[in-house]
Amino acid sequence: MITLPTLAWHQQLPWRRYIEQLFRLVSRRRDFRLELQRGHLIAGVIPEQCRVLLNPDLIPVPAMGVRFDPQTPHGQRTQLLRAIMAHEAGHVVFSASKPAGELGWLWNALEDERMERLVMRRFPELCSDFDFLGDAMLLKGNPEPIDFMTACLR
Q1: What is the number of alpha carbons within 13 Å of residue 91 lying toward its C-beta?
Q2: What's the alpha-carbon Rg for the chain, to the nearest Å?
Q3: How far is CA 61 from the centre of its chain?
Q4: CA distance 16 to 9
Q5: pLDDT digit of tens for each residue in the chain (154 aa)?
Q6: At how many degrees (to 10) do helices 13-27 and 73-94 cross?
Q7: What's this model's pTM, rounded to 2 decimal places?
Q8: Contacts of 66 (CB under 8 A, 6+ apart)
Q9: In what order do the strands lie in the sheet with 51-54?
Q10: 10 Å Cβ neighbour count for 137?
Protein backbone atom coordinates (compact mmCIF):
# COMPACT_ATOMS: atom_id res chain seq x y z
CA MET A 1 0.00 0.00 0.00
CA ILE A 2 1.28 3.43 -0.93
CA THR A 3 0.69 6.31 1.42
CA LEU A 4 0.90 9.79 0.05
CA PRO A 5 2.11 12.63 2.23
CA THR A 6 -0.67 14.83 3.50
CA LEU A 7 -0.45 18.44 2.45
CA ALA A 8 -0.69 21.18 5.04
CA TRP A 9 -4.20 22.63 5.25
CA HIS A 10 -3.27 25.82 3.39
CA GLN A 11 -1.86 23.82 0.47
CA GLN A 12 -5.14 22.02 -0.06
CA LEU A 13 -7.40 23.61 -2.69
CA PRO A 14 -10.70 22.92 -0.84
CA TRP A 15 -9.49 24.89 2.21
CA ARG A 16 -8.34 27.82 0.08
CA ARG A 17 -11.64 27.87 -1.79
CA TYR A 18 -13.54 27.73 1.49
CA ILE A 19 -11.81 30.77 3.01
CA GLU A 20 -11.92 32.75 -0.24
CA GLN A 21 -15.65 32.10 -0.63
CA LEU A 22 -16.30 32.96 3.01
CA PHE A 23 -14.45 36.26 2.65
CA ARG A 24 -16.44 37.05 -0.51
CA LEU A 25 -19.73 36.22 1.19
CA VAL A 26 -19.17 38.47 4.20
CA SER A 27 -17.39 41.31 2.37
CA ARG A 28 -19.62 41.15 -0.70
CA ARG A 29 -16.48 41.74 -2.72
CA ARG A 30 -14.92 39.45 -5.30
CA ASP A 31 -11.88 41.54 -6.13
CA PHE A 32 -9.73 40.73 -3.06
CA ARG A 33 -6.79 38.35 -3.42
CA LEU A 34 -5.86 35.96 -0.62
CA GLU A 35 -2.18 35.91 0.34
CA LEU A 36 -0.74 33.47 2.86
CA GLN A 37 2.17 34.96 4.80
CA ARG A 38 3.98 33.65 7.83
CA GLY A 39 5.08 36.10 10.50
CA HIS A 40 3.75 37.98 13.50
CA LEU A 41 0.52 39.05 11.82
CA ILE A 42 -2.41 36.66 12.20
CA ALA A 43 -4.46 38.28 9.45
CA GLY A 44 -5.17 41.64 7.89
CA VAL A 45 -6.63 43.47 4.95
CA ILE A 46 -5.12 46.11 2.72
CA PRO A 47 -8.26 47.54 1.12
CA GLU A 48 -6.53 49.97 -1.24
CA GLN A 49 -4.61 47.01 -2.76
CA CYS A 50 -7.55 44.55 -2.52
CA ARG A 51 -5.45 42.10 -0.51
CA VAL A 52 -6.40 39.90 2.42
CA LEU A 53 -3.48 38.45 4.37
CA LEU A 54 -3.60 35.28 6.44
CA ASN A 55 -0.88 33.57 8.44
CA PRO A 56 -1.22 29.82 7.70
CA ASP A 57 0.21 29.08 11.16
CA LEU A 58 -3.09 29.65 12.90
CA ILE A 59 -3.09 30.62 16.55
CA PRO A 60 -3.01 27.69 18.97
CA VAL A 61 -6.22 27.03 20.85
CA PRO A 62 -5.66 26.60 24.60
CA ALA A 63 -6.91 23.33 26.07
CA MET A 64 -9.25 25.09 28.51
CA GLY A 65 -11.09 28.37 28.86
CA VAL A 66 -12.19 28.85 25.26
CA ARG A 67 -15.93 29.08 24.73
CA PHE A 68 -17.51 27.13 21.87
CA ASP A 69 -14.38 25.03 21.34
CA PRO A 70 -15.23 22.13 18.98
CA GLN A 71 -12.45 20.07 20.66
CA THR A 72 -11.05 18.60 17.42
CA PRO A 73 -8.20 19.97 15.28
CA HIS A 74 -10.42 20.04 12.18
CA GLY A 75 -13.23 21.78 14.04
CA GLN A 76 -10.88 24.30 15.60
CA ARG A 77 -9.27 25.10 12.25
CA THR A 78 -12.66 25.53 10.62
CA GLN A 79 -13.93 27.81 13.37
CA LEU A 80 -10.72 29.88 13.48
CA LEU A 81 -10.75 30.36 9.72
CA ARG A 82 -14.44 31.26 9.70
CA ALA A 83 -13.96 33.84 12.46
CA ILE A 84 -10.72 35.31 11.08
CA MET A 85 -12.01 35.65 7.51
CA ALA A 86 -15.36 37.09 8.64
CA HIS A 87 -13.48 39.54 10.88
CA GLU A 88 -11.23 40.75 8.07
CA ALA A 89 -14.15 40.93 5.63
CA GLY A 90 -16.00 43.03 8.20
CA HIS A 91 -13.19 45.57 8.09
CA VAL A 92 -13.65 45.86 4.32
CA VAL A 93 -17.38 46.50 4.72
CA PHE A 94 -17.57 48.62 7.87
CA SER A 95 -14.20 50.19 8.71
CA ALA A 96 -12.62 53.45 7.62
CA SER A 97 -8.88 53.99 7.27
CA LYS A 98 -6.88 53.30 10.41
CA PRO A 99 -5.01 56.27 11.92
CA ALA A 100 -1.23 56.05 12.10
CA GLY A 101 0.88 55.41 15.19
CA GLU A 102 -0.30 54.74 18.74
CA LEU A 103 -3.74 56.13 17.99
CA GLY A 104 -4.09 53.43 15.33
CA TRP A 105 -3.70 50.64 17.91
CA LEU A 106 -6.38 52.12 20.15
CA TRP A 107 -8.66 52.81 17.19
CA ASN A 108 -8.23 49.23 15.98
CA ALA A 109 -9.16 47.75 19.37
CA LEU A 110 -12.36 49.79 19.49
CA GLU A 111 -13.09 49.32 15.80
CA ASP A 112 -12.77 45.52 16.05
CA GLU A 113 -15.59 45.38 18.58
CA ARG A 114 -17.83 47.81 16.67
CA MET A 115 -17.25 46.12 13.34
CA GLU A 116 -17.82 42.59 14.70
CA ARG A 117 -21.17 43.68 16.14
CA LEU A 118 -22.19 44.98 12.71
CA VAL A 119 -21.08 41.75 11.04
CA MET A 120 -23.10 39.73 13.58
CA ARG A 121 -26.21 41.75 12.71
CA ARG A 122 -25.94 40.41 9.17
CA PHE A 123 -24.66 36.96 10.14
CA PRO A 124 -25.83 36.07 13.70
CA GLU A 125 -24.40 32.57 13.33
CA LEU A 126 -20.90 34.09 13.59
CA CYS A 127 -21.43 35.18 17.21
CA SER A 128 -20.02 31.96 18.69
CA ASP A 129 -17.13 32.02 16.18
CA PHE A 130 -16.12 35.52 17.27
CA ASP A 131 -16.36 34.46 20.94
CA PHE A 132 -14.15 31.45 20.16
CA LEU A 133 -11.59 33.61 18.34
CA GLY A 134 -11.60 36.28 21.06
CA ASP A 135 -11.03 33.72 23.81
CA ALA A 136 -8.27 31.99 21.85
CA MET A 137 -6.55 35.34 21.21
CA LEU A 138 -6.91 36.42 24.82
CA LEU A 139 -5.53 33.17 26.23
CA LYS A 140 -2.83 32.40 23.66
CA GLY A 141 0.47 31.97 25.41
CA ASN A 142 -1.16 32.67 28.79
CA PRO A 143 -3.57 29.96 29.98
CA GLU A 144 -3.92 31.62 33.38
CA PRO A 145 -7.06 33.72 33.90
CA ILE A 146 -6.41 37.45 33.64
CA ASP A 147 -8.45 40.46 34.65
CA PHE A 148 -10.25 42.70 32.16
CA MET A 149 -7.86 45.64 32.45
CA THR A 150 -4.79 43.49 31.82
CA ALA A 151 -6.50 41.95 28.80
CA CYS A 152 -7.23 45.39 27.35
CA LEU A 153 -3.62 46.49 27.76
CA ARG A 154 -2.17 43.49 25.91
Answers
A1: 24
A2: 16
A3: 13
A4: 8
A5: 676 668 999 999 999 999 999 999 999 999 999 999 999 899 999 999 999 999 999 999 998 889 999 999 999 999 999 999 999 999 999 998 888 888 888 888 899 999 999 999 999 999 999 999 999 998 886 555 555 555 555 5
A6: 30
A7: 0.86
A8: 132, 135, 136, 139
A9: 33-36, 51-54, 43-46
A10: 16
Residue 30 CA to residue 118 CA, distance in Å, equals: 20
Type of residue found at 139: L
How many CB atoms are located within 10 Å of the residue 104 CB? 13
Answer whether 87's CB lies under 8 Å from 130's CB: yes
Q: What are phi and psi of 54, to 5 degrees?
A: -145, 130
Helix residue spans in the chain (DSSP H):
13-27, 73-94, 101-122, 127-139, 148-153
Q: How far apart are CA 82 and CA 90, in angstroms?
A: 12
